[in-house]
Structures are given as C-alpha cells and as structure tokens.
Amino acid sequence: MNTARSYVLLGVAFLVALGCTSTVLDDQPVDPNDLASLTAIRVDPPVLTLEATASQPATQTYRAFGLFPGGEREITDLTNFHLDNPAVGSFARAAFLSSTQQGGSTNVLAQAGSISGSAKLTVHFTASVLVPPTSGTPLPSDPASRFTGTPSASRAPQVVYPNDGVMMPPNIQRLEVHFKPGAAQNTLFQLSFVSPTSTVTTYTRCGAMVAGGCVFPLDPATYAYVAGSNAGSGPVSLQVRGGDDNGTGFGESAKISLQFAQEPVSGGLYYWTTSNNTGIMRVDFGSSNLTPSLFLSPAQNGFPTCVGCHAISRDGTKMVSSLGGQNDGRLVFIADMKAPSKSLLTLNGTVPASTANQIQFASFNPAGDRFVANYGDTATLADRNKLWMHDGSTGLRIAAESIQLTFEPDHPDWSPNGDTIAFSKVGIHQTSQRPFNCGLEIVKKSGTAWSPPTTVVPIVTGKNRYNPNFAPDASFFIYSESTCPGGNNTSADCDADADPSATTWAVAPMAGAKPVALAKAAAQGVMDTQAQLSDTYPRFSPFLQKQGSGRLFWVTISSRRKAGLRDPGSYTGGLQWLWMFAVDPDKVAAGQDGSYPGFFLPFQDLSTSNHIGQWTQKVVVGPG
Q: N or C: which end of the chain has fewer CB within 10 A?
C-alpha cells in the first residue's frame, strides 16, 4: 500500500475509534503557500499497465493528492510529473503520452514543493512486422491467421542462435536469429519476442539458407522495439513458428530467453584482423553506425609486414603495437590518435629497427603517461626477465623505471586504479607470442617503487594460465587457461596463442585467491560439436554499468565457436571471431560464475580471423 495513503487510512481508523469523523479535504483548493506543510504525496493510479503500438500511443491522466495536517487534498495542478525512464513516454502537465517506439516499466514521479511521491507504470508495446522476401513468393496479407490452432510437433523449427540466456547491450543494433526450419512444407515463419513489456512479432520467409537453416537478421528498428522495451528488465522469450501460406498446419520451436542490459555499451573497440595483411580495425560503440573502419595496416601505412598485438590508452589518445610479431616486435607508437599519420613512428626508425625498444605485449597506466611492455625474444636474459617501462609521450623505454625479475614475464596488464600490474609468469620459454606453462603474478606499487612479485595463480604441469586483464573496478582480473593435450607442457595446442582448450577464468589479485571458471560464457552453442572452443584474449570494456540494483561488466574474446549456422571451420585451425559476454562482478566476488552466454559481434568481417578486442573509453578522431 502507498505509504502516504496508509497514513490517511490509519488516521481515519483512529478518529472513528474515538467516535469522530475524519477530515478529508479533497474538494478544497490548495494555495501554493500551503505546500510548506505538505508531508506526503499519493499518486493515482498507483499501479497501471497501458497498451501501446507503433501507430497508437497509450494515454493516461494522473492525479496527485497531498497529505496535510488537516487531511488529504488534491494537488494535481501544483504537481510536476515526470518519469525515471523517459524513453517510455512523456508528460504534458498531468497527461501521460507513451512512446510509439517501445514499451517498458518506469516510475511515475510526482513533485510538489520539496515532497515527492511515485506510482508504478508499465507500457506494454505491441508491434507486428512483415519482412517481404527479396525474391519469390510474397508474404500473405494476413500471415498471423496461418498460425492458429494446435501446433504439430513434426513441423517444429529449432532455434540455434542466439544462445539461450544471453545478455545483450541495448545498442548493438543488430541481432541475427538462426533457426532450422523444421518440416519441408514450412515456408512461412513467425518470430515472436514476448515479455511483460512487449510483444514483437515478425513474419518472414527463410530466404537464403546457411548450413541447412535460416538466418534472419532483425533490422535496427525491430531490434530497437525489443531491446528498448526490455532494457534492464527481465528475460524476453523468443519462439519461432513454421507454417505455410495455405494454413495446413504449423510447428513451434522450444522457447529460449534473452535479456537486454539496462545501459548501452560505449567506448571504442580496436581489434586486429588477418585481412588487409593483418591490420587493426576500430569501431565506435557510441556511434549510431556500428561499422568498423580500417585504422592501421601495412598497405595503408607503409609497413613491411603485419601489425598487431596492440594496446590503447584508456582515454583513447595513444596506441602502441608490435610489428612482425614474435622474433621481430618493432615498436609502432602513435602519440596522438587525432593525427595518427603525423605522430606514427616505428622505433627506432630503421627497418629492421634497433632492438632497443622491441615489444610483444603492452598496457598503459590510467594516466597514459607510461606503458609497460615485455619482449622475451632476445638472448639477453636480463632483458627477457624484465617488465619494461616506456614513456607515454615518446614510446621510448625508461630503463631506470623498468622492473627486473628473476623470470620471464609476458602479457602485462596495468590495473585501472594504477597500483597493480598483473602478468604471465613464463614457465618454459618459446617466444613472447607463444609462451609455455605460465602462471599469473602481480606487482604492486608503493610510492615510486614496485613490490616483489606475488603469485596469484601458480604454474602447474599440464596447464597454461596466461593473459590477465583487469576488470574496470580492479577488483579482479580475467585470464585464459588451457589444458595441455596429454599433459604435454610444450604442445603447440598449449602455447597461449590460439589454444583449442582455452577458457576464461576470473580471480582476485591477491595470493591464495580462488579462481572462478566463467562456465556460462564458455558453454557450447547449439551447433557446436565439441566443448573446446578456443576462447582467447579476453578483454574488458572499461566501464562499470548499472543493472537493476546490481552491476554489469562486458568482455570480448576471440573464439572458434560456431556463430549459430555460420561455421568458422576447424576448432583447431579455423577462423577466430570476436564474441562478447556480460559478467556480474558481485557474483564473481562471491565466488560464483557471474558470466552470461555470449553473442558474436555482428559487424565484424566473418571471412577473416579477428583477434584481441582492445577497449578504450572513447574513439578519438582528428578534425575531419
């Protein structure tokens, strides 16, 4: 019961018990000066569900009642109404008008003077979308009539993507639904997305078939209907029905569920691809057009060989990468992303470059004035066993600040709060790109000095544990773990590069912390035929985001898993594509698997391999 209304009813009961009548003054006007004695506001109606469509908004006039020392009075004309979720609709004085683009749940907030009250509002949004085929038989004018009656199990389609239980950003803009059509006579399909806040139904043909199934991409408008209506709320049920134009019967798939995050994902994603003779692509998640562009490549920038293994400062203004990879590692440094062609240099300016500034992997500190790097492909043991500090303005090594170790480090990652560096401890040297039998260590900063290394995840026979990456709040890091075939520490399938058995784990950055397997993120999709999916190089988006009363982080990985009906090839030698999944950090802190099943990034080129999705807070571009 509304608290303010409860006060009124309790007062009435008390007066009746004394043989008196209550003082309820709804019909007496309120002077604005009286608001100084207002103690509570009751909003009417207190709970409401409205229906809206793409052509017909929902409307409702609200009333507000104030509780004063003498009783309750209507104060609608003195009250400002608004919503805590303005995407659902808007107010003109006390009149609510819903959106015609989405539904959703929200609080109606009423403010008079310094006192506020609220009510619960749900707008249920309904849309029916007909997607005519590009060729062949047009859709019937009333396709919904073909899906009435009792479904036939023998005609049931099967949804194979997205993965059941997936969490998606509301602004990913595109979602492919992959399904097997069921019986051969199924030529007309109904896709339904149903939740308490929306019912969005699409009618379509199968179109071009992929691997014996149908790939249906939701257009951005339909995706916005579903995602906008359900951002931050509970699961949406997805079901596919298959029938025919003559209405001879239909089958329906099992339902799967998907969720949409409360907040959009922003920031820039830079990843390297094996197309363009291995170049670095970038995409701006804050853009309305999620289309990658080529940022750095041999053809575009005159490099003699591939460029990759990159790192970007958190503010997006600087980049460092490695030219030629293992046994080469010429440092490529961009001091100003606003003018990359003018500030790009390959240290030390010769080909082949001087060995003085070679790197394999690197990571910037939060301020961007330093980055830490490793380079183990050298015969000089002291240089191999070192975390090299580099100047964030010139890219040059700073020998005096570098950290000498008694073992070879790899894959350094500098924490977002600046006080910790996590890295792989190489057990068996091969190359910096492909180290064997690693564990995970940290060093912590105290003043200007760094502590001796602390073991977080130890080296053990038959495993490779490598490539740490800190969560946005630095409370834990994720890493890859591979299981070596036959326990062979030097197997090519256990070299920390594209290991078939690689999965993602999380651990707090302290000695004795218990690692947590992110098993939901590692789970097979419907079309995957084996458990080993080669999930490598996990990288966090830099932002901590709200999700109801909790929090949410985002991670990208490179994986050989099947993207629904789309097949990257062999699980050991096929293409690797970028996937993304959400993580609940509070569950991880409690020692639980806080991950969600993943989804493949729909904007990437699927004819090539894509790797190491490095994130930054924003995409920095030049004037033009």
A: C
Give the Cβ contact number of residue 524 at 10 Å: 15
- Classify residue 18 by burial, with Cβ atoms within 10 Å: 0-12, 13-18, 19+: exposed
Domain-located, residue 186: yes
Does residue 152 belong to any structural domain of this protein?
A: yes
Residues 74 and 141 in one domain: no
Beta-carbon count within 10 A of 508 CB: 19
- Per the listing, tokens 């203004």 go with 317
Rounded to an integer, what distance in angstroms lies between the CA atom of residue 569 and that of residue 221?
Answer: 32
Q: Give the whole-angstrom CA distance, residue 413 versus residue 405.
A: 16
The pLDDT > 90 percentage for the chain reads: 82
H-helix or E-strand spanning residue 341: helix 340-343
Name the residue with higher pLDDT: 419 or 29: 419
Same domain assignment for residues 108 and 154: no
Residue 43: alpha-carbon gap to chain centroid: 37
Instruction: Tell me how far apart the alpha carbons of residues 337 and 621 are, in angstroms, rounded to a whole number.
Output: 6
The reply to whether 55 falls in a domain is: yes
CATH classification at residue 142: 2.60.40.1930
Residues 443-491: tens digit of each pLDDT:
999 888 999 999 999 999 999 999 999 999 999 999 999 999 999 999 9
Task: Give the span between the Cα atoms of 568 and 562, in whole angstroms.
Answer: 6
Please give the Cα distance from 571 to 395 (Å, whole number). Answer: 37
Residue with tokens 């951005």: 220
Question: At a CB cut-off of 8 Å and minimum separation 6, what does 268 contact?
Answer: 282, 283, 284, 285, 312, 316, 615, 616, 617, 618, 619, 620
Contact (CB, 8 A) for 474 and 420? yes
Return d(Cα 468, Cα 134) in angstroms, integer: 47
Q: What are phi and psi of 254, to 5 degrees?
A: -65, 150
Give the whole-angstrom CA distance, residue 138 versus residue 523. Answer: 39
Q: Are 277 and 580 in contact (CB under 8 A)?
A: no
CA-based nearest residue to 251, from 184, 159, 179, 152: 152
C-beta separation of 338 from 623 below 8 A: yes
CA distance 325 to 305: 9
Cα torsion angle, 345, 347, 348, 350, sign: negative
pLDDT in tens, 154-209: 999 999 999 999 999 999 999 999 999 999 999 999 999 999 999 999 999 997 78
Taking all residues of the chain, what is their mean pLDDT, rounded to a whole number? Answer: 92
Of 416, 417, 473, 477, which is closest to residue 442 (Cα–Cα)?
477
pLDDT digits (tens, 9 = 90+) for 87-131: 999 999 999 999 999 999 999 999 999 999 999 999 999 999 999
Could you report the per-residue pLDDT of 527-538, keeping only the tens digit for each?
A: 999 999 999 999
Q: 76: domain range?
A: 3-119
CA angle 199, 202, 206 (to 5 degrees): 150
Q: What is the DSSP letter of 518?
A: -
pLDDT higher at 396 or 343: 396
